[in-house]
Design brief:
11 helices; globular; 10 strands; Nucleotidyltransferase, domain 5; 2 domains; single chain; 5-stranded mixed β-sheet; alpha/beta
């Protein structure tokens, strides 16, 4: 089954053609990073307008009108995401579906991220899955493609969001995650005590054993950085200290879930899964008998291949949409300031 996937949930305009949920036949992505750097973050209105400009050229790089006969279905990210951006992709997908008589498959953006490592490996169920990105930090117990349980989520900022906000305070630019990661590799998190203290504030209580919190960590670093002398010369150490705290919280909660559920398979995905410290620490778990799976760096962020790949399993389960399918901006079970359980 060949599925054409479209992804426009935030600031990436992406199209991919994937066969049987695994084989990537073609793909193209336009990134808006350069456009949003002047604002130190994504501006929703600008993002949606950029999608309008670039969606058809990106689509034409992947498939021609004549080749549409070989496509069995059209998949598109339905949500969560920026509502204006989502509507651009959904509108194009509906137009293609209607014009060529192809079934429409709406895809959950988080489920697509969770699927990304499946593009490159046959991953056994059940497993613990972590989706960590600029907008989401979610921990899952996954028993099957359509059988999973949300164990925990962030109760305030997502981990990638915290990276971006600290990068803005430090004057590094956008996106903050890769910039902090790069500088952190040159720093020592224990180089001075004012930032070397363990600041991950959400303890492993019964209520928050799997939940995450980054607002307090971000604020603590912000206030401490403001009073540092020679801040510029200490940037690598600041970044290393923050990165260790932020990532160690992800690792600790994930290990809680693995041990509590007696599982030895872990799947990491989302934009923050590109972080070098996170990847190295997760990879080290294999020495303890934990099987770990991560997508290649190019597929950690938003991309249409994961959308089309996930849609294949939705199609097998008969999960289709139609021209009445609408976009949604948030997940019902994740609200800032609220626990998922």
């Amino acid at each position: 089954m060949r599925i054409l996937g479209i992804e426009t949930s935030c600031d990436e305009t992406s199209v991919a053609l994937v066969e049987d949920g695994k084989r990537i036949l073609g793909e193209a992505t336009y990134s808006q990073i350069a456009v949003h750097q002047a604002f130190d973050g994504v501006v929703p209105e600008i993002a949606s307008r950029q999608h309008l400009v670039h969606i058809l050229p990106v689509l034409q790089k992947v498939i021609s009108v004549e080749e549409m006969t070989s496509v069995d279905a059209v998949a598109v990210t339905q949500g969560p995401g920026l509502i204006g951006s989502l509507l651009v992709g959904l509108g194009v997908a509906k137009a293609i579906s209607y014009s060529f008589g192809k079934p429409l498959i709406p895809v959950n953006h988080i489920e697509a991220h969770l699927y990304a490592p499946h593009l490159f490996a046959d991953i056994p169920f059940p497993y613990i899955g972590l989706v960590a990105s600029g907008g989401h930090t979610l921990l899952f117990l996954v028993r099957g493609f359509h059988n999973y349980e949300v164990l925990g989520s962030t109760i305030d900022d997502a981990v990638g969001e915290a990276f971006d906000k600290l990068a803005k305070v430090l004057g590094l630019g956008y996106p903050g995650g890769p910039l902090i990661d790069r500088l952190a590799q040159e720093g020592n998190p224990d180089s001075f005590p004012e930032l070397g203290k363990r600041l991950s504030l959400l303890p492993d209580t019964e209520r928050d054993r799997y939940n995450f919190s980054y607002s307090g960590l971000k604020t603590a670093f912000t206030y401490r950085v403001q009073h540092l002398q020679d801040k510029e010369t200490k940037l690598p150490h600041i970044c290393a200290a923050f990165q260790r705290e932020a990532i160690d919280l992800l690792l600790r909660k994930s290990l809680n879930a693995l041990r509590d559920n007696h599982l030895s398979t872990f799947v990491l995905s989302g934009g923050v899964s590109a972080n070098s410290y996170l990847r190295s620490q997760v990879k080290a778990w294999e020495k303890e008998g934990i099987q770990t799976y991560m997508a290649p760096l190019a597929y950690c962020g938003d991309n249409a291949a994961m959308v089309a790949g996930r849609a294949y399993h939705d199609a097998l389960a008969g999960k289709y949409g139609d021209l009445r399918t609408d976009a949604y901006s948030r997940l019902e079970y994740v609200r800032k300031g609220k626990r998922s359980s």
